[in-house]
Amino acid sequence: MAIRRKGGRGPARVIKEDQHKINDKIDAKEVRVVGEGIEPGVYPIAKALELAEEQGLDLVMISEKAIPPVCRVVEYKKFLYEQKKKEKELKAKQQKVVVKEIRFGPQTDDHDYEFKRRHARSFLEEGSKLKAYVFFKGRSIIFKDQGEILLLRLAQELEDVGKVEQMPKLEGKRMIMMMGPKK
């Protein structure tokens, strides 16, 4: 990034350097040219720049890694605007995955289990993923079969709203099971 000072005083303004190589900054000998009103093809760089200049537009390198590199004849500012707009659209369409956790003990009694099951059901209904785990403290690790039974029971009771993505698995002092919502 280049830093320019205006008049030598005041705060420094940071100016972003171009993300793409344009016009004279393109260092390839030959380029594949595309654009509106131009016959697509491979041209020497001088001819490609001449084509862009005739239309009063810029020659912008789109793909540097291609052989020969691909350049488009467009108005650079408009090209950047369109790209920014596309990125914004893609970002808006992305879904954020929310993972909610529910913790059990190996000997969780029925009332606590029912309370947590109701919460798990609401999490899955709202579209969140569920991470249910049994935490073993101290010597309670000897009850790992009870923990697995508890998680499998939960999965069975919630199978109408969610599906098991990861079966119960012991990781350290935790037995973890992942569930996702049914579409």
Automatic annotation (TrEMBL):
MF (Gene Ontology): ribosome binding; translation initiation factor activity
Q: What is its main location?
A: cytoplasm
Quote a single Gene Ontology cellular component term.
cytosol
Question: What SUPFAM superfamilies has UniProt attached to this entry?
Answer: Translation initiation factor IF3, C-terminal domain, Translation initiation factor IF3, N-terminal domain
Q: Where is the Translation initiation factor 3 N-terminal domain positioned along the sequence?
A: 22-89
Does the keyword section mention ATP-binding? no
Q: Where does the record say this protein resides?
A: Cytoplasm
Q: Which domain of life is it from?
A: Bacteria
Task: Describe the family membership recorded for this protein in Swiss-Prot or TrEMBL.
Answer: Belongs to the IF-3 family.
State the function annotated in the UniProt record: IF-3 binds to the 30S ribosomal subunit and shifts the equilibrium between 70S ribosomes and their 50S and 30S subunits in favor of the free subunits, thus enhancing the availability of 30S subunits on which protein synthesis initiation begins.
Q: Which proteins does it associate with, and in what oligomeric form?
A: Monomer.
Q: What is this protein called?
A: Translation initiation factor IF-3
